[in-house]
Amino acid sequence: MAQGDSNKENHCRELYSDLNSYMQFSIQKITPADLSGLLELIRELARFEQLEHEVEATVDSLKDSFFGSTPSAGALLARRGQQLAGYAIYFFTFSSFVGRSGIWLEDLYVRPQMRQQGLGRALIEALAQIGAQNNCGRFEWTALNWNKNALEFYEKLGAKALNDWILLRLNAEGLKRLANQDNSPGD
């Protein structure tokens, strides 16, 4: 091999090594100190989904949900170095058909400049590990029907769309209204 070829090969190896280390991410369970950063990412996701007007979460409500006396959810936070890169929020469900718990992915978000580098898949794989460790029978989530990139990504993971099901929701006001109704027998 000529000296010039060797120098090119070393330069390419160094460039690849630098690029590879640049693309390294860490994924860890959220801590109370991370909550303001998580809320920032939640707001970014809401803007992307054109739902920012629906964000009611605060650092205090997240602290209670993740670290209160009865935590209702968990979260993984991804970073590249010290920079926030993305997150996943999850909680456990139950299936009467399967007869055991499942894991529900509430949010998966990767900042636009960090996409196409394997981080979304790494977050989903980390949640799959949590689900497997907890003997979950299902791993479920929703996606917006207009988010074609996400739908294609999930399909490549092997996820199947459940087109026969419709998601139904009551907001907090509707829940309180329903809870306070006088439900007579036979309703």
Tell me about this structure.
By secondary structure, the protein is α+β, with helices and mostly antiparallel strands. It has one domain: 3-Layer(aba) Sandwich (Aminopeptidase). Helix content is 41%, strand content 20%. It has 6 helices and 5 strands; from the N terminus they run αβααβββαβαα. It has helices spanning 3-22, 35-48, 59-67, 119-133, 148-157, 172-179, and strands at residues 26-29, 74-80, 83-95, 100-110, 139-141. Strand 3 and strand 4 form a beta hairpin.
What layout of secondary structure does this protein have?
Blueprint lengths: L2 H20 L3 E4 L5 H14 L10 H9 L6 E7 L2 E13 L4 E11 L8 H15 L5 E3 L6 H10 L14 H8 L8
Parallel strand pairs: 4-5
Antiparallel strand pairs: 1-2, 2-3, 3-4
| Low-confidence region ranges | 5-22
CATH superfamily: Gcn5-related N-acetyltransferase (GNAT)
Question: Which range does the strand content fall in?
Answer: 15-25%
Order of helices and strands: HEHHEEEHEHH
Number of helices: 6
CATH topology term: Aminopeptidase
Average pLDDT number:
89
Work out the number of β strands.
5
Identify the quaternary structure here.
single chain
Q: Identify the CATH architecture.
A: 3-Layer(aba) Sandwich
CATH class label: Alpha Beta
Instruction: Report strand order across the widest sheet.
Output: 1-2-3-4-5
Biggest sheet, in brief?
Answer: 5 strands, mixed
Distance between the termini: 84 Å
Structural class of the helices, strands and pairings?
A: alpha+beta
Task: Give a nutshell description of this structure.
By secondary structure, this protein is an alpha+beta fold. The protein contains six helices and five strands; from the N terminus they run αβααβββαβαα.
